[in-house]
């Protein structure tokens, strides 16, 4: 299994009217692939925030491998 970092991202408008990207939460998971990593992280994100749909608190998800090649 590989390790993945899944970030839940939200676009917000700042005081100056500029859009910026905010990381709502980063979740590290062990999974076989990026699809499974997203599924596991989604479950954790929803449980932590006590919601049923991750898109209520984030606009998109970024899944990156966290393993560093030796």
Q: In words, what does this structure look like?
A:
- The protein has 1 helix and 3 strands.
- The chain is of the alpha+beta class and 70 residues long.
- The chain has a 3-stranded antiparallel beta sheet, covered by helices on one side.
- Strand 1 and strand 2 (19-31) form a beta hairpin.
- The chain is flat.
- The two termini are 16 Å apart.
Helix and strand content put the structural class at alpha+beta
For the biggest β-sheet, the strand order reads: 2-1-3
- Which whole number gives the mean pLDDT? 93
**Global outline:** flat
Q: How many angstroms separate the termini? A: 16 Å
| Percentage of residues in DSSP E strands | 35-45%
The total beta strand count reads: 3
Percent of residues in helical segments? 10-25%
Largest sheet: 3 strands, antiparallel
Order of helices and strands: EEHE
Please outline the helices and strands.
Blueprint: E1 2-13, E2 19-31, H1 34-49, E3 60-65
Antiparallel strand pairs: 1-2, 1-3
Please provide a brief summary of the model.
The chain is of the alpha+beta class. The protein has one helix and three strands; from the N terminus they run E-E-H-E.
Key terms for this structure?
70 residues; 3 strands; alpha+beta; 3-stranded antiparallel beta sheet
């Amino acid at each position: 299994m590989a390790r993945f970092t899944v970030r839940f991202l939200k676009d917000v408008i700042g005081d100056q009217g500029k859009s910026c990207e905010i990381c709502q939460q980063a979740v590290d998971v062990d999974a076989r692939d990026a699809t499974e990593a997203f599924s596991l992280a989604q479950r954790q994100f929803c449980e932590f925030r006590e919601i049923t749909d991750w898109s209520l608190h984030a606009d998109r998800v970024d899944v990156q491998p966290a393993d560093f090649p030796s």
